[in-house]
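$ run holo --ligand "pyridoxal-5'-phosphate" --emit tokens
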Amino acid sequence: MTRTIDSKLPDVGTTIFTVMSHLANEVGAINLSQGFPSFDPPEELTDRISFYLKSGANQYAPMPGVPALREAIVAKTARIQGRTLNVDTELTICTGATEGLFSAITALVRRDDEVIVFDPAYDSYEPAITLAGGITRHVPLLIDDNGHDFRPDWDRLRGTLNDRTRLVILNFPHNPTGAILSQDDLDTLAEITRDTQCYLLSDEVYEHIVFDGEPHRSLLGHDELWHRSMVICSFGKTFHATGWKLGYCAAPADLTEEFRKVHQFTVFTVSTPTQHGVADYLGSHPEFYEQLPRFYQEKRDRFCSLLEGSRFRFKPAQSTFFQLLDYSDISDERDADLAVRWTREIGVASIPLTVFCETPFTGTRLRFCFAKDDATLEAAAEKLRDL
Ligand SMILES: Cc1ncc(COP(=O)(O)O)c(C=O)c1O
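-- output --
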């Protein structure tokens, strides 16, 4: 019997991260495509998780998350962003940022609501919006006159917002461009949304990876924006543990209530021993996330200096663990084709930017992950320098 399923997501294929990682493995290429570190979480942290695994912390955690972990996040957020979250009503532990984003979108977006995303947009947003019955509106980021830096186009946002806009999704520090927000950006966003009914969903998974002495400016830390915001973070990026899928959603109590209505029937709770272990470590080792900008800035600088003398155009990333390389002096091929060809022929896998955009305005740029050990970065750079 053959049948055709009337798909709810007819345009969705396999995510580019899976496609490129799979290809890299198949052809034995150095995989700088998918965003995961090639090193382990701190041993003291894995020891704490093992301890809880072996001490009976193996049954369902409370639906909003283990209290000790929520308390540790409250303390961190108060210290860094100056906001003291209510531990019972404003914080929910979720299964990585992906579940947090999905639950938030499902909780808020109704049929025919419009949701604005900034392109290039992380690829999980639009399918979630579509499944919720919403309509995605794409606003491209602006490329600075220097040809490298990206930033939000607030005028386009202002022009796209309307009475049907239910949600605006932001992602700063931004994957893949590394763009960050200034205080002026936050104030402008507050001014644009002031007389509207829309909510803000802020994907801040790279909150601890901002370079050159700049702070991470969270929507959490802005008094006016906070009241309409759900902020999603992930320990996967912070603790070199993307496989743990541990994250959280911070939001005012009424938004958290709606978030939990979905969260409790999507995953209900999150791995108990992991939560306990991270709670202990987060509370007692703030120096780990405090040194993260320096740690990744050194990686960024190493990768960039290895590429000096190559034919790529680039400016060191402002945040995240991704470096964009503009290949316009080497090839005029489409980025998606070139990423595949170079994985096969050169042996280095990367991510094309245009797959995250409604229109291919990002041009001739590929994204390379530098969360790798020095030997991997050196081997990759050697191949890239030869192009
Ligand atoms: C911008 C962005 N949002 C969300 C995620 C997903 O985070 P998690 O692995 O915690 O689900 C990622 C992971 O790469 C990301 O880059």
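-- notes --
DSSP finds 15 helices and 14 strands in the chain.
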